[in-house]
Amino acid sequence: MYSTYLLVSHGSHDPRPQQALKQLADRLKNRINLRLLPSSPSPVLATATLECSPVPLHEQIKQYAEYTRNLGLNQLEILPLFLLPGVHVKEDIPQEVAIAQEALGRAVSLKIKPYLGYQLSRLATKLTYQMTSIPCEVWILLSHGSRRPLGNQPVEELASQLGAIPAYWSISPSLESQIEALVKTGYKNIGILPYFIFAGGITDAIARLSEELAEKYQSVTFRVAEPLGVNDTLVDLVVDILMEN
Hints:
Layout: E1 4-9, H1 15-36, E2 45-49, H2 57-70, E3 75-80, H3 87-104, E4 109-112, H4 120-133, E5 138-143, H5 153-162, E6 165-168, H6 175-185, E7 189-195, H7 201-216, E8 221-224, H8 232-243
Parallel strand pairs: 1-2, 1-3, 3-4, 5-6, 5-7, 7-8
Helix pairs in contact: 1-8, 2-3, 4-5
Keywords: Lyase, Metal-binding
Protein name: Sirohydrochlorin chelatase
């Protein structure tokens, strides 16, 4: 069954994540079209946001589902561009999809694909490359964090694979507390690995906090890596998830 695809991100008032999302979609469109609809000039992939959009997600889904039907297709597959199985992935997006499906009836079938962060081994490979390019004594894997039960388990598993220490932006243990513990242990060169897809307000805040920590611990060097970003690894990962049955 041929489908169209919709990438759903969190959304932000900062223009950079939206620009990066568009860049990712543009890189994906040719790959997906050539693989599925080589004779069609119409793109079969679009983007939507859960928040910071003038229309709710269920309406964005409904609009693209109607476009899907006009292409002569009857299935729309939705990929949550999130790294954690938190409230947005497990509750908010399924609720919005259910509202859209009820409005569409049987005209177009909606299917939610696995969220981006479930591919831990692939993400670990990408993050390992970043870590080896910036030599540090110890690394902290810094995620946004989720208050949903088991929502942070992938971060704990990924940190274990990487030999890093987990920390969270919105819950404990925080970056500050983990760094304090490492400094007391005697580490002098600490790397911070932001576990975020795109650069934005939070990654800016992480950079500012690292500067404050450098002032506080003047004998310690802090190095902050880039977020995942739009690159061949991310594009390949998204394509593989989209092509899974």
